[in-house]
């Protein structure tokens, strides 16, 4: 295992994003359709926050709904905006940050995804799942 491998090797580069003007109904549909758990919220290419599927579960009964179900609890979702639900004080890494450094950050923090930002522009996202797959490839 190379110790200086940059996170750009394992990060998702084709990132699905939301805008703060999108609604939570749209967000949940994307989470379920794409089978993902984190969506960066952007303005242009600049990251403004991160919405996780767990954030939606906190405000709804979405976890009681079948994963393949496309109907959502619109009443609850219409009570909140993405800006109100997303995490705003994000820790970010650059594409040259090492995988080891990313692993250390994710191991110590209570979140499971990091936006990858170069020159104030979102260029990727790395998750704990990406790290696990990377480790599995090493064996």
Detailed description of the structure:
The chain has 139 residues and is an alpha+beta fold. The protein has helices at 24-34, 53-59, 74-77, 82-85, 99-108, 128-137, and strands spanning 38-43, 46-52, 113-118, 121-127. Strand 1 and strand 2 (46-52) form a beta hairpin. The longest helix is centred in the N-terminal third of the chain and has 11 residues, at 24-34. The mean pLDDT is 89.
Strand order of the largest sheet: 1-2
Radius of gyration equals 16 Å
Number of strands: 4
Overall 3D shape? globular
Question: What is this entry, summarized?
Answer:
With 139 residues, the chain is of the alpha+beta class. Helix content is 33%, strand content 19%.
Protein topology:
Layout lengths: L23 H11 L3 E6 L2 E7 H7 L14 H4 L4 H4 L13 H10 L4 E6 L2 E7 H10 L2
Antiparallel strand pairs: 1-2, 3-4
Keywords:
two-stranded antiparallel ribbon; alpha+beta; globular; 139 residues; 6 helices; single chain
